[in-house]
Design brief:
Oligomer: single chain
Structural class: alpha/beta
Largest sheet: 6 strands, parallel
Number of domains: 1
Order of helices and strands: EEEHEEHEHEHEH
Number of helices: 5
Number of strands: 8
Strand content: 15-25%
Radius of gyration: 22 Å
Shape: globular
CATH class: Alpha Beta
CATH architecture: 3-Layer(aba) Sandwich
Length: 229
């Protein structure tokens, strides 16, 4: 951890004119590598305990096997790291809409069913996230141009810090994918940032390694202390 010197005012125990300084720990930024148009999250304080992964669906399975594989790996790693995984069923409003596409039981976290393409509309998603203290959102699923994008824009309006994972989203076409992703990043990130599941997984592995290293050090220190006694 880097340490930043700060000036300390002179007082009874610190004569005026003395070059008295103290050091305090400066917070270390934790962000996902390679995100655009800014390092995500904006405050540099990524935490699995503040984060939720929204797997948005429209009632049809992901047809692109590579995207399906990424989503599966991402979900498993996220849950293991302490990220809340939420399945969000979206679709065209009406009798044949989202209510009919909830699908089987989601085994790794809560599921919500929206009343339209926006995952927050007519669903308990917002209250669920706020109750769990999750203000950093990762978006994945299908289709990018409909359910994912509508849910993203609504989340942004509600004050959530959002990262859309392009390699974990299935799109209707390459052309509409490009437009959907570029819309997110315009004006400095009007709807948050974009990134890749691969880079997020890299960060989760790094954090897991750091935790293991810290636990090992604590265990060694405890053993040394016991031996000294």
């Amino acid at each position: 951890m880097s340490r930043t010197p700060i000036a300390v005012s002179a007082g009874p125990d610190r004569p005026a004119g003395a070059a008295a300084q103290a050091t305090v720990a400066a917070p270390v930024a934790v962000t996902v590598a390679g995100t655009e148009p800014y390092p995500w999250p904006w405050d540099g304080r990524f935490s699995p305990r503040r984060c939720a992964l929204l797997i948005v669906g429209d009632g049809s399975p992901i047809g692109d096997s590579s995207v399906a594989g990424v989503v599966s790996e991402l979900t498993a790693a996220a849950v293991e790291a302490g990220i809340m995984a939420v399945r969000v069923a979206t679709g065209r409003p009406g009798p044949a809409g989202p209510a009919a596409v909830a699908g089987p039981v989601w085994p790794v976290g809560p599921s919500v069913t929206a009343a339209g393409w926006d995952g927050f509309y007519g669903s308990p998603l917002d209250s669920l996230l706020r109750a769990a203290g999750r203000d950093q959102l990762l978006l994945a699923g299908r289709l990018l141009e409909t359910g994912v994008h509508s849910t993203l824009r609504s989340a942004n309006d509600r004050g959530y810090e959002c990262l859309t994972l392009g390699d974990a989203c299935e799109a209707f076409s390459a052309q509409t994918r490009a437009g959907g992703m570029s819309t997110i990043t315009m004006s400095g990130g009007i709807f948050g940032a974009i990134g890749s599941a691969a880079d997020l997984l890299g960060l989760l592995r790094a954090l897991a390694g750091l935790t293991c290293s810290t636990d090992s050090t604590d265990s060694t220190d405890s053993t040394d202390s016991t031996e000294e006694r």
